[in-house]
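2,4-dienoyl-CoA reductase [(3E)-enoyl-CoA-producing], pasting as requested.
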Amino acid sequence: MESPFKPNILHGKVSLITGGGSGIGFEISTQFGKHGASVAIMGRRRGVLDSAVSALQSLGIPAVGFEGDVRKQEDAKRVVESTVKHFGQLDILVNAAAGNFLVSAEDLSPNGFRTVMDIDSVGTFTMCHEALNYLKKGGKCRSSATGGTIMNISATLHYTASWYQIHVSAAKAAVDALTRNLALEWGTDYDIRVNGIAPGPISDTPGMSKLAPEEINSKARDYTPLYRLGEKWDIAMAALYLASDAGKYVNGTTLIVDGGLWLSRPHHLPKESVKQLSRAVEKRSRSGPVGVPNRSKL
Ligand code: HXC
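Structure tokens follow.
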């Protein structure tokens, strides 16, 4: 699908995207590049990085891949520094690296819980921590230059509760807390905007294939108000909005891009039956004191 944004909205910006070699991260990398940004991607698998970089370069996007694990502070530091060395600056950090698997709380080991917290929550903080020096630019106190921006990919699982996702729910709740707290502190000190995106079920992603086999996919379609799964493109467009000047007054929010899924509830009563039932209940309650059933109906 064609982007509704002008192709130069990120012109001159340098972005670093963790988990940028596949899934949602790769689509964000592609769209950032198509809108003028240089793109550095970070990931653990050399082969995935290499093919992602080739694909980006074939579109004319200045792109580079750096191997690294967000759980290791030395990797985070090295990749941030390599990005700045390669492109001369850093303006946009996207934390898209994540880990997940379906498991009941009873069967999840503390190490399994910790592993996902380490990737999603601690990894996000570590990347932000290492990138700060480059994102702060002049800093509000020292010059009029605005700082860079950070975007954390989250989820909606923890807004209520999610089956077999206790580890990811906890990890993404922490990510949302990071988004708000960094927005407050770094927005005030350095004009750095920090936002998040909470995708719903997005087709053709590692998350979807791990968490939702086909039988669950079709159920999700039934419950989603917009009656379809999202596309990676939908998330990338939200990222472009937040990263560009269109989002210049947006700070500390996590934008939900899920077609309204998290609001959905089981649909017990068809709309056609509501009016009839509702009128009948009204009629009953008028013909007797409220709360006392009409004897003739019993
Ligand atoms: C139960 C599991 C498990 C499983 C791993 N563990 N897989 N427990 N069920 N299926 C446990 C292990 O037993 C171990 O605990 C601990 O987790 C660490 O496992 P390792 O395999 O050693 O970890 P590692 O090699 O570091 O791999 C991390 C990983 C892996 C998260 C397990 O899946 C990974 O690298 N994932 C990255 C890619 C990914 O998942 N992408 C999808 C993101 S989807 P013990 O106690 O045995 O030592 C996403 C969407 C969220 O984020 C929102 C959806 C709506």
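Note for the archive: The chain has one domain: 14-266.
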